[in-house]
Amino acid sequence: MLLEMLQNVLNANINVGDVSFNLTEVEYHKRIHEFEFDFPVGLFQPAELENLSGENIAINVKDRFNLEGMMNGKIDMLFECKGKYFVLDWKSTFLGDSLDDYSVPALDVAMNENNYHLQYLIYTLASKKYLQSRLPDFNYERDFGGVLYLFIRGIRKGNSNGIFNCKPSLDQIDLLDRMFSQKSMVQPGSFVNGELSVI
Q1: Fewer CB atoms inside 10 Å of the end CB: C or N, the chain?
Q2: Whole-prediction pTM value?
Q3: CA-wise closest residue to 121 among 63, 66, 182, 54
Q4: Alpha-carbon distance 67 to 48, whole Å?
Q5: Is 89 a catalytic residue?
């Protein structure tokens, strides 16, 4: 069963924009597993993050206290394929017993219920910062392919079940960057964790 799941995941067709591939095409030297990032965050009000919500995207933030410090997180995989860079996050979340529970509409619901949209926006910003620091001519619109959330329980070869993908707009990422780049008043010991305090 595990081997079958692995084969399904590796050979599933992934279509993001005008790029189509499967994971067997991702070369070893063009991927970073468990990509850890950190960047400074100036004083901001977490409720502002809800301004990133849009059509079919609901972002909810419970923490109402001002935060500042260092944003830290770990991306399952950052990789390049066919000239584009992608963020990949594995999800073992159980959504139901039927493959229909992993259909595109069902994944849209799961993404909102678990606040995964906020997670991938932060991951995208972190990846953009990293790529800009390593590639002087990096252009987000041209070079960034998008975000993949692979719900492995629902992935099958030959269909799109279990695969959520999108490319956040540059406006969204720039807005998030501005929120995090306000004047910092960091005190020793202050810390913001990208997976616990914000998401």
Answers
A1: N
A2: 0.88
A3: 54
A4: 11
A5: yes
Q: Would residue 166 count as lying in a domain?
A: yes
Q: Is residue 117 part of a domain?
A: yes
> Cα(173)–Cα(188) distance, rounded to whole angstroms?
28
CATH of the domain at 102: 3.90.320.10
**Residue 199 in domain:** no
Q: What does the DSSP 8-state code read for residue 120?
A: H
Q: How far is CA 123 from the centre of its chain?
A: 5
What gap in Å lies between CA 179 and CA 45, rounded to an integer? Answer: 9
User: Using one digit for the tens of pLDDT, what is the confidence trace for 67-116?
Assistant: 888 899 999 999 999 999 999 999 999 999 999 999 999 999 999 999 99
The range of the structural domain enclosing residue 89 comes to: 2-193
Residue from 79, 81, 42, 61 nearest 178 by CA: 42
**What's the pLDDT tens digit per position in 138-154?**
999 999 999 999 999 99
Q: Which residues contact 138 (CB under 8 A, 6 or more apart)?
A: 128, 131, 132
Domain total for the chain?
Answer: 1
Beta strands in 45-185, from DSSP E residues, in sequence order: 67-81, 84-91, 144-151, 163-166
Q: How far is Cα 185 from Cα 8, in angstroms, rounded to an integer?
A: 48
Catalytic residue among 18, 63, 76, 89: 89
